[in-house]
Amino acid sequence: MRNALVNTPIRKAAKLTLIALVAWVPMVAVADTADEIKAMILQDNADSRKNLSGGSEGYSKHGSFEFWSSGGLMQYIPADSPAATWEQFALTPKHIKVITLVEDQAAVAMYYSEGSFHETGQNPVSHYMTRVTDVYVKEDGKWKVRAAHYSPIAAGQGTQQSSLD
Fold it and tell me: Model pTM greater than 0.70?
């Protein structure tokens, strides 16, 4: 009787279902990190639009190494840097893609940032079009930026600031 059940349609369907579930479970876990980071990028952007400031609490306790869209040298941003403030902020992150490196520990986000802004004490940027790559690590249960690279899109404009000094 046992051998009669080996190749039945029900048995085959059960095997396929089990294989599909095993293959699907890792994808669900990876989507959690990606969804968290994408939602955080969108929420941080909305908060910056509303409050005209960006919190420095988003940086890793080890700071962040960054290449800015101005084309300057690599910058180190300490974790305790003062928050950026703007007179005007109308940037929009678009086409956000997140690659999970280690589930719930590290990931890379890539997206476009487009619009205009006027950072306090700097010249306004009216046609900002930049590719963004952010490296995130999870520290104390929160996602933090550990490294970033911003490069202007052809026909767009990057920032004009080339250092913190």
Answer: yes
